[in-house]
Each structure stands twice: as C-alpha cells, then as structure tokens.
Amino acid sequence: xxRKIEIGPLTKLEGHGKVTIKLDEKGKVEDARFHVTxxxxxxxxxxxxxxxxxxxxTTRICGxxxxxxxxxxxxxxxxxxxxxxxxxxxxxxxxxHMGQFIHSHALHFFFLAAPDFVLGPDSNPEKRSVIGVYxxxxxxxxxxxxxxxxxxxxxxxxGGRPIHPVTAIPGGMSRPLSHEERFYLSKLVRxxxxxxxxxxxxxxxxVEAYEKRLPSLGNLKTKFMGISKEGSLxxxxxxxxxxxxxxKKLVEFPGRKYLSYIGEHVEDDSWLKFPFYxxxxxxxxxxxxxxxxxxxxxxxxxTPRASKRLKTFKELxxxxxxxxxxxxxxxxxxxxxxxxxxxxxxxDVVSKDTRVKAQRKAGEGVGVIEAxxxxxxxxxxxxxxxxxxxxxxxxxTAHNNKAIDMSVKEAAKAYISGGRLKEGALNRIEMxxxxxxxxxxxxxxxxxxxxxxxxxxxxxxxxLQSLRRP
Amino acid sequence: MPKTLVLGIGNLLRKDDxxxxxxxxxxGRAKLPxxxxxxxxxxxxxxxxxxLEGVERLIIADAVLEDGPPGRVRIINxxxxxxxxxxxxxxxxxxxxxxxxxxxxxxxxxAVVVCAIxxxxxxxxxxLSLPLRAAVQEAAGLITExxxxxxxxxxx
Lengths: 470, 156
What we know:
heterodimer, A: alpha+beta, five-stranded antiparallel beta sheet, five-stranded mixed beta sheet, 12 helices, 17 strands, about 40% helix, about 20% strand, globular, B: alpha/beta, 3 helices
C-alpha cells in the first residue's frame, strides 16, 4: 500500500507550504512534491487598478520583500510609459534595493537557516528558532538583529515610510534623501560591511561543519538565470542571462523580451506556474534563480571585499549544491553593504532631480529586478486611461519551484526509508527547501491557524500516522 | 519609538485580513497624545521587533479567527495567547516570538490585542466585508479610550 507523507506547513519558511512525500510499498521514496499556494488571485485583483497605484499596491504582496515588488512595479510603469528616469532616481532606487538585500539576506541567514546549524538539525524543535539562536549565541544574534535593522533603516529613509515604501513612482522617485538622512545612513552602512564579513565567515564555518553530515540537501544540475551586467553581479537593472549548470552563458536578453525566452508550464495539483527556458523545452529547460544562480553566472563582483569572497567561492568551481545557497547569500549580503556605501557617497542621492513627467497611455511594460530570492518580473498592460487590463507576475519562488521539488525528492531519499519518520529527517527535508529561501503564498496572513501537522496518508486517503509539530 | 504603540497587522489586499490596517488608518485621522505612535505593520511579522524598541505598551489591532460572529470585537490580553497559537504573519513568527525578540533587543512590551473576527480573509479585495466595517469604528473607539486612560486594562 502506498503511503504519502505530508509535511507542513513548513516552519521557518515564509507563508504556508506543504510537502508531500509519496512512499512506495517498500517504504521508499517514490516521489516528492513541494506545494505552493496560488498567486493568480493577485493578477486578477490588479485588473482595473490604475497603473500608478501598482508600485504601492504591490508592496503589500509580501511582508518580507515589499521593496522588490515596489521597484519591479515602478520599472514596469516606466517601461510602459516610455520614460527614462533621472540618474539620481536610479541611484536612490538601487540604494533602497541594497537595503532590502541587507535586510532580507540577514533575516534568512541568521533567523531562518542558522537555527538549524547553530542549534543542530536534531535539536529540540521548539528551541530551533530565533529565540533559540539568541539563547545559544546571543552575540551572533545581536549582530544579526543589528544588520537587519540597518537594512530596515536604509529602506525606511529611502522609501519614505516604515515597512511599505512609497517613494518609487512612474518617472523616478518622489524625493531624494535629506543631508541628515544621508549622513545617518553612511555611518550605518560602514557598520553593515563589517557585520556582513562576519556573516560570510559564519556561513563558510557552517558549510564546512555540515558538508559531510548533510550531503543530500540536494546537488542538482540545472540551468541558472539572473541579471548580469557584462559578467558582473548586478541586482537592480540589466539584461537577463540564462546559463548552463556550469555557469556558462547560453543566452542574454533584455527583460522586456522575457516571453520569448521563458515559457510557463502548468501542472494539475499546483496553481503555481513552472517557468522554463523555452529553447530547451520542459523539463530540460528547468533553471534556478537566486544567490547560487547569480554567483554561478557572475564572473566578478565590482566591490572589493565581496570580490575577494567571490574568488574564493569560485575555487569550488560551478556548484549546484544547495548548501552553497547559504554561502552565496552572505557574499551577496556583503556586496549589498559595500554597494550601499558607494551609492550613499554619491552626491546624486541628495539631488532634487529625481523625477520626470510621464503621461498615461495605452501600452505594455515589463519590469525585471533581482529580488533577494531571485529574478522578479512584473508585466502590465494598460488602456489609454492608465487602467490595468492585464498583469502577469513571475516571482522568484515560481522559477525555483521545480528545482525545489527535485531537492525535496533527493533529500527525502537519503533520510527516509523503510517507512520510518524521524523528526530530524523531516527537518532535513525542510532544510533542503529552506536553502531556496522560498516565499510561499506571501499574501496569506496566518491567524490562529492549526498547529503544524504531518500526516502519513495511504493512497486510499487513509491517515496512517499523524505527527503534530509543537 | 514612542512609549505606547498601536500596531496594525494584516494584509490590506486580502479583505478582512487587513482589518488591523484599517483601524490604524482610522486612528490616524485623529490627533493622538505625544507619546503614542501608530504603525502599519502589514505582514512584516517578526521584523517588527526592531520597531518595538523602547515601546512599553503595545496595542495590536488585528483580525483573529475564533468562534463567534464576524465583526465581534474583543480585547485579548497577550498572555492569553500562547506563543504558538497566534501567528502574526504568513511568514514565520508568532506574537510570542515577536514579544520575546523585542525583549531580547530592548524591553519586552506589555501587550493587548484588539481584534475582530473576520468573515473573509482569503479573497483579494481592498475593502472590508460589512460586519468588519462597523468593527473598525468599535475597535478604534476602544483603543482611543485605552490611550486616553479612560479604561483600565490588565496588561500582560
């Protein structure tokens, strides 16, 4: 009798996801699936909205990466309206974006991934959380909190308000930084660089300690996709590269032409679309996005400290091993801190020339940006009144969905057999998923929901075993 | 941050899920005492910990799914909600986690939750369902009385 193991909602991920592992009669893993909830509702919701509302509305999609949506949306509006924004606006937006990277990458590494490593994957699940890390290593936790706060401060000042930014508008930015804000941030950014170096060291320490113990967080051969500017790591704006599993560039295209290169495959039991590289078809064209992809694609980084770290990273050769998502995430964190410093030192960030006028028109526009988790695409069609007729969003987690399935299957195979379910085994599967820093149904507010439950279900739908997570 | 903070939680795009944000917007129309602040916390979840630095009294406005008719407003002492029960975001993190982390960063605030039972938290819509619209007024009224010291609350 076939058995299905379901895990989830996954702890320490964003939103609610469910993992289903199908066992065969012998108790071995037959198949695995990572379920992501639907996102189409938001696309329908966007229809009828005014174009210039979109940068503000879309900040509400996700509580962790509102800036990425805010900026992708503004870029899509600029593209639709046919405007080039002034250079100061470009720099201010990129600075906000670096704040997001600092904030988001520090959050993921220290509070979502680190508990597994600092406390150990077999430790008491109740303690394997932010507070657990804080109790075990308060100095590390304090530094992480500080780093996240710095990211938040950059976003708050450039974005115009806490949490949900409002300053990126079609045509540019609604205002520059004040001199006081600039001075304040310049001190914080210097601090962030030092803290980020610590994060990279910690990441390497973790990988070295766990590499032999956890060989199966998933080592996949997939293509990679990400923005890259002439071989350099680039997060705000540039052409999109798709590379092979060795990091070798296969194709490069401007973001607005994404439909000619990316197809979307739909499977019955998941609402999420599965993007793939059209030329290679499905499933050969599966690619991954995010820090690991970006660092495999980039040949260099143009800030000094992160550049050094990239060289060390490249000594591994191209890597598909999921564990290295954590290392690459911290290297990007360091780049973001350095880049933020460069941008703040530039007088353009206090220039009053931050916007150009734009007239509403019927048209189509695409905004592509590298969000912390990977490539984010906003695509709008508007009528002559500026009302959205159609909207399409591809979020980073959608690009990675199939790769996550594959990683779950690989991790499950190594840790579950003979039908035995161990708490640590389930968590290791979650750890494989966490490498991708996935954002699931980021619009769902969990309110007083049921405690986490694992169900082993037979193919006849009978619950054989039920585990409750505390 | 001010000594007393009114924090709205929820997703404005998901109908009644945004109840807490509507309450904040409502309160924002009135003049508040100097040591009271408002924050639209969205679904930022545990990230809100850094915004609680220096806050001594925390009043949370939120939709909370429990037994009862949609729109019913009540005040929950934060101590009533065990850490794992009350998630403040689709992202990881419960109210207990948030308060613990705030306590680790600076000082753990005393907290109450002024909540309403939602009717629909899943649909994509920018407004509230009918029972929740009245609830905004009621919740805002209760919070105003708390701020003005006209009611005594047992903080936890």
